[in-house]
Amino acid sequence: MALPCSFSVALVLLSCHYLCCLACHLPDTHGLRNWRVLTLLGQMRRLSAGSCDHYTNDFAFPKELFDGQRLQEAQALSVVHVMTQKVFHLFCPDTSSAPWNMTLLEELCSGLSEQLDDLEACPLQEAGLAETPLMHEDSTLRTYFQRISLYLQDRNHSPCAWEMVRAEIGRSFFSSTILQERIRRRK
Question: Is the pTM of this model over 0.85?
Answer without folding.
Answer: no
